[in-house]
């Protein structure tokens, strides 16, 4: 909405955008069933403004994100959780935002994502949910800006499907059916045959 963030598909034809949207400080696009959010929030704004931005972002993720979400961007927020030396109030709010949505932190290592002169910090953060993020790293290539490129591999696993052995006749396909069963008889069977599950 404010044109401060964008998501772009560079390999057209290989990936298709099925839906997109934007808000103040963020833009999103659904690709291969995953909602990818790009965010930017400028420094020098009040904590109340930052909190309002996170509220809007949270509402968008809840409404449009679906099960598979990646949220990344320059939040200008510091937190020891993603490698900062100290945690700022913005960083605490951002961490709480991620926790409230069940998002997982993808950042790894302590390489700064931003550097200007002698100053450096980690203010570019990536979160994800229900997808697999591999090889998250800060790249060494010159980006022609104060920020380094962030690279990662996103793997979106398909929903598990029932596997049927087509070599067997249909009447031998394993499965449950309660059609024609007496409900009380079935309940008695379940009660007398507890399911033992071992975890570990």
UniProtKB/TrEMBL annotation:
<dbReference type="InterPro" id="IPR005135">
    <property type="entry name" value="Endo/exonuclease/phosphatase"/>
</dbReference>
<dbReference type="GO" id="GO:0003824">
    <property type="term" value="F:catalytic activity"/>
</dbReference>
<feature type="domain" description="Endonuclease/exonuclease/phosphatase">
    <location>
        <begin position="36"/>
        <end position="150"/>
    </location>
</feature>
<dbReference type="InterPro" id="IPR036691">
    <property type="entry name" value="Endo/exonu/phosph_ase_sf"/>
</dbReference>
<protein>
    <recommendedName>
        <fullName>Endonuclease/exonuclease/phosphatase domain-containing protein</fullName>
    </recommendedName>
</protein>
<dbReference type="Pfam" id="PF14529">
    <property type="entry name" value="Exo_endo_phos_2"/>
</dbReference>
């Amino acid at each position: 909405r404010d044109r401060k963030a964008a998501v772009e598909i560079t390999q057209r034809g290989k990936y298709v955008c099925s839906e997109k949207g934007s808000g103040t400080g963020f833009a999103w696009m659904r690709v291969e069933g995953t909602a990818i959010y790009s965010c930017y929030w400028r420094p020098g704004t009040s904590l109340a403004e930052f909190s309002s931005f996170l509220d809007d972002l949270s509402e968008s993720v809840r409404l449009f994100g679906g099960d598979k979400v990646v949220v990344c961007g320059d939040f200008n927020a510091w937190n020891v959780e993603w490698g900062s030396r100290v945690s700022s109030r913005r960083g605490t709010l951002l961490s709480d935002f991620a926790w409230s949505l069940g998002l997982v932190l993808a950042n790894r290592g302590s390489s700064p994502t931003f550097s200007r002169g002698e100053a450096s910090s980690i203010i570019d953060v990536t979160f994800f949910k229900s997808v697999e993020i591999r090889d998250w790293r800060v790249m060494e290539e010159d980006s022609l800006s104060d920020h380094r490129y962030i690279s990662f591999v996103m793997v979106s696993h398909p929903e598990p499907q029932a596997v049927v052995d087509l070599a067997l006749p249909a009447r031998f396909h394993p499965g449950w059916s309660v059609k024609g069963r007496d409900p009380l008889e079935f309940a008695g069977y379940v009660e007398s045959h507890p399911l033992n599950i071992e975890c570990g």
